[in-house]
Specification:
- The chain is α+β, with helices and mostly antiparallel strands.
- The protein has one domain (4-145): Alpha-Beta Plaits.
- It contains four helices and five strands.
- The protein has helices spanning 17-26, 55-71, 95-109, 132-145, and strands at residues 4-12, 33-35, 44-47, 51-52, 81-89.
- Strands 1, 2, 3, 4 and 5 form a five-stranded antiparallel beta sheet that branches.
- Residues 117-130 have low confidence and may be disordered.
């Protein structure tokens, strides 16, 4: 089965970048970049490192969403949730190993880890597969954010 990596960006309202960064650090969550989005009424964008399609990635995303909820982040009509799916195959490693390495790389170097030894061609439409972790992530985000202000 072909494996691909993905990245998620979560936009929030109501809590400053500094407070979001501090809350993630206190919770021991590494690898997230918290920065301005530039959209009116969006106070912070939380950019997760590239992740593999695995339980480790889903639990990482869950922990990020839980901290955002606990610190009081809200969403409004200007906030978005962006999911980027790589078109290059993940090779020579497992999704869990890639996820751990990617989080560590982003934390220590500030940039994102590219998939190593990836296919260079774009997948054909018939090769595109369902990405269960991303679907679970979107459902979790929606459930967590359902009580946030819209």
């Amino acid at each position: 089965m072909t494996q691909h990596t993905f990245g998620i960006e979560i936009e929030t309202h109501g809590v400053s970048i500094t407070r979001v960064k501090s809350a993630l650090e206190r919770a021991g969550i590494r690898g997230c970049q918290v920065k301005p989005d530039g959209t009116p009424n969006v106070d912070a964008e939380i950019v997760l490192p590239p992740l593999g399609d695995c339980q480790v990635a889903f639990e990482y995303l869950q922990s990020v969403c839980t901290v955002l909820d606990q610190v009081g982040c809200q969403i409004n009509r200007q906030c978005g949730l962006h999911v980027h799916v790589s078109n290059a195959e993940l090779r020579d490693t497992t999704p869990a190993a890639f996820t751990g390495a990617s989080i560590a790389h982003t934390e220590t170097r500030g940039g994102f880890l590219a998939t190593q030894n990836c296919a260079t061609q774009h997948p054909q439409r018939s090769q595109v597969q369902a990405l269960p972790t991303q679907k679970r992530a979107a459902v979790f985000y929606h459930a967590t954010a359902s009580h946030w202000t819209l």
